Amino acid sequence: MSVFFSLLWRDVLLAFRAGGGIGTAFGFFLTVIVLLPIGIGPDQALLQRIAPGALWIALLMSVLLSADRIYTADYEDGSLEVMALGPAPLEVAALAKALAHWLTSGLPLAIAAPLLGFLLNLDVALAPRLAASMLIGSVALSMLAALGAAITVGLRKGGLLISLLILPLYIPLMIFGVSASTGGMSGPDISSSSFLVLTAIVLVAVVTSPIASAAALRAHMR
Amino acid sequence: MGLDQDQFLYLLQAGRLAAMFNYLANPTRFLKIQAAVQPWLAALTVAVLGYGLYLGLFVAPPDYQQGETVRIMFIHVPASSLALGLYVFMAFAHAIGFIFRHPLAEVAAKSAAPIGAVLTLISLVTGSLWGKPMWGAWWVWDARLTSMFVLFLLYLGYIAVWQAVDEPHRAARIAGIVALVGVINVPIIKFSVEWWNTLHQPASLLRKGGPAVDPAILTPLLWNMAGFALLAATLLFMSMRAEVLARRVRQMEMAQVGRAG
Questions:
Q1: Angle at the Cα of B190 (from A215 to B234), degrees rounded to 5?
Q2: Structural domain tally of chain B?
Q3: What is the DSSP secondary-structure string of B33-77?
Q4: B192·A176 Cβ contact <8 A
Q5: DSSP 3-state assignment of B63?
Q6: What is the pLDDT of residues B131-190, one digit of tens each?
Q7: Nearest-CB residue to B150 (from A168, A215, A222)
C-alpha cells in the first residue's frame, strides 16, 4: 500500500515540478473552448446547445494529449524496471500511475470545465450534472489513456498509435458522459440512467486497465 | 474413486479434443494439412460463392420497395456479419494463445485481422452505396454504421500494433492485449451507439420467432454467407501459411546473423 501511495505522490509531484503536465492540458482545453465559438460563430443559442458536448470533446482531447507521457520517461530511464522488480505487483504501479494521471489532468479539468463552460453559454442548470459526469468519467479516460500508453511504450510512432487505439474505447464514455450531462437533447430525461451506465464503465475500466497495462508493460520489458 | 460411464466417456472425448488440439500445434504438420486441404477449400469456395452470387444477383426477385438495390444486401450482410465474427475469432485465438501457448493461435489471429478489416471496409462501402438511394445520404451517423466504423478502427489499431513491434513474440502478446480489450468493448460500443442513435433496420435474421425474411431472399443470402465464410477460411489458411513461412525465414536470418557475429 505504501508503494502505491509513494508512487502516486511521486507522479503528482513530477507533474507539478517538471512542468508541462497540468499547464499543457489546461492550455489545450482553453484553446479548444476559445476557438470553438470563433470557428462556428457567436450564436448564443447554438453555443448553449452544443456546450456540454464541446466541453466533453475538449476534456477528452486534453486527456489524450498527455497520455503518451504516462510511461515514456519511466521506460527510458529504467524506473519502470525498478517498479516491475519492486515489492508491489506491477498492477499496483499501473493503477497508481493512471490515478496520478487523473489527479493531474482529468480532475482539474473536470472542476474547471463548468466554469469555462460559461464561455460557451452553458446552461447553469446543467453545470452540476456536467461537473459530476466529468469527474466520474475522466477517471475512465485516464485509465484507458494509461492502458494505451502501456501498450505503445517504447514504440516508434507511439503517439500516433495511442490515439488510434484509444479512440474506439472513448466512444462509449463520450456518449454516456454527454447524455448524463445534458439529460438528452430531446425526449425523456435519461441523465440519471446514463450516469449509472457511465459509472459502470468507469468501474470496469478501473479493474481491467491496470491488469491489461501491467501485462503490456511486462511484454515490453521481457 | 470410481467414474460412471458418462464421466468416463466425457473424459475420453475431452482427451481426444485435446489430442487433436496438440496435433495441430506443430507448424510443419499444419503446413502439410493446409497444402492438402487448400485446393479443395478453394474449389468449394468458388462453387458456393459463385452459386450464391448467381442466385442473389440474377434469380432473387427485386424488392417491392427497394427495387434492384436490395441485391447489395447479398454482399453487405455476409461481409458485415463475418467482419464482426472474425474480430471475435481473433480475440478467441489470442485467448488460446495466452492460455495454452498454442503456437498457431497467434498466427491465426494475425492472419485474420486484414481479412476482417477488408470485410469491414466492404460492409461500410456497400452500406454507403445502399444508403444513398434508401436514406438519401452516403453516410448517416446511425448506430450500426457507427459501430461498424469503430470496428474498422479497432482492426486498424490491432494491425498497427503488429506493424510497430518488431519482435514477433512480443508483438503477439501486445496485440493479444489489444484484441482482448477490444472484444470486451465491442458489446459496450454497440450498446452505447444504439443508445445514442438508431436508424438502421433491426436484426431480421437472428431474432425470436424465426427470420423475418422471405425464403426467396433468405436462400441466396444463406448461400452467400456460406460462400463468404469459405472465402475467409481459404484466405485465412493461405495467410497463415505465409506467416509461418515468414517466421521461418526470420529465424534463418537471425541464425545467419548469429553465426556471422
A1: 75
A2: 1
A3: HHHHHHHHHHHHHHHHHHHHHHIIIIISPPBTTTBGGGGGHHHHH
A4: yes
A5: strand
A6: 888 777 888 777 778 888 999 999 999 999 998 888 888 899 999 999 999 998 888 887
A7: A168
8 Å CB contact of A219 and B177: yes
Task: Name the residue range of residue B72's domain.
Answer: 29-200+217-260
| Under 8 Å between Cβ of A50 and A120 | yes
The answer to whether residue B224 is domain-embedded is: yes
Domain-embedded: residue B3 = no
Distance CA B166, CA B169 (A): 9
Evaluate whether residue B140 is within a structural domain: yes
Pick the residue from chain A with its C-alpha nearest to B158: A165
Q: Which residues of A touch B191 (CB under 8 A)?
A: 172
- Helix (H) / strand (E) containing B155: helix B143-164
CA distance B77 to chain A (A): 23
Please state the ipTM of this predicted complex: 0.86
For the segment A31-76, what is each residue's pLDDT rounded down to a tens digit?
999 999 899 888 888 888 888 889 999 999 998 888 888 888 888 8
